Amino acid sequence: MTTTTTNNQHAVRLALLLGLFSTLGPFTIDMYLPAFPQIVEQFGTTASLVQLSLTACLLGLGVGQLVMGSLSDVHGRRNPLLISMAIYVVASLACAFSPNIWTLIAFRLVQGFVASAGIVISRAIARDLFSGHELTKFFSLLLLVGNLGPLVAPVTGSGVLSLTSWVGVFIALSLLGIFLLASTKWGLKETLPVERRSPSNFMQQLRNYGSLLRDRTFTGYMLAQGIMIAGVFAYVSGTPFIYQNIYGVSPTVFALLFGSNGITLIIGSQLVGRMAHRVSEKTFLVFGLWLAGVASIAVLLVAYFHGPLYALVIPLVFFVASIGITSTAAFPLAMESQGHMAGSAAALMGVIPFLLGAVVSPLVGIAGEDTAVPLGVLILATSTAAMMSYFLLVKKGARQEA
């Protein structure tokens, strides 16, 4: 009993620490969202260019995971994380003091690139230490902390904006980077021993990625999860203007509406983690995909007929909840047989949503700032594509092998 309790306490402490690194992505993405209109006015630019700064961050987060995942397989988990956190602090300060929108966009790319280390390496560490249902349970615990990012980040950003300008948001992010740098230095041990590391060979790393992409089952789970999360980036990019410009809510109300969906993410992920021994991850994944499809149809209908705010918020709540379910279920299913190159596998699992999100985000504003229809179209398209990825690659592949 004592040993079990000690192990549980250690798992909770580790999940708390790794979860903090996972929150770096959501904080980097979400914290400045309430400042979008202010940045437009400050630089005398357009909403699309401000959204391009989000796109640059997402591209950095996506490409960075491929690099950081490979580096962590070769050099271990700890050193790449230390260097990345140091650069993150510098990039955040550079964003704060950008003289124009293009400089901000450039440093958002750098900021996203190094922030990716927190996401991909924390997940690789989880796979270093756990497998099977234990990985599912630990990953849900990690997401419990990590999903607080979308809940807290916009509210924190709104609070900072009530005291200072958008510049203060990026200064706050630099302070977060300093805290994570210290946490890496003094609170994180190496989990990948030298004998388990990949050779320092660029071509071998490319072959690892090629091997993963040829694995039909892995690719199916990766795309199902990644495309679903790309739909959330459409939500992230579009709601600052939809809520504030179309429905006229204040930055504080927007932050509360946006942040409250973090609760649904937590509920979805914890449901999978708590029920992992009773309901299979595959069952949860399929349920989450269908839930996303129904919710996205509802969003499109409300947007098309100009429904009231509450009619838009409710299906968006269920859509975001489906992300918590599908992400928690798909990750252990995809990673189960990839222990020998967990960093590279975690990188691919992470890069797809950010690369697709970088494409999807600007499309939300393609019809202007006075309609929510593009948001409905985009999340319906991503939900449908994610479902097709699972059924065509995973289910059909399993039937063919049988």
From TrEMBL:
Keyword Metal-binding belongs to the record? no
Which terms in the GO cellular component ontology are assigned? plasma membrane
* Protein's cellular compartments: Cell membrane
Question: Which terms does the record give in the GO molecular function aspect?
Answer: xenobiotic transmembrane transporter activity
- Give the PROSITE patterns listed for this entry: MFS
Keyword Membrane listed = yes
Annotated membrane topology: Multi-pass membrane protein
Q: Which PANTHER family match?
A: MAJOR FACILITATOR SUPERFAMILY, POLYAMINE TRANSPORTER 2-RELATED
State the protein's name.
Answer: Bcr/CflA family efflux transporter
Q: Which organism does this sequence originate in?
A: Paenibacillus whitsoniae
The major lineage groups are: Bacteria, Bacillati, Bacillota, Bacilli, Bacillales
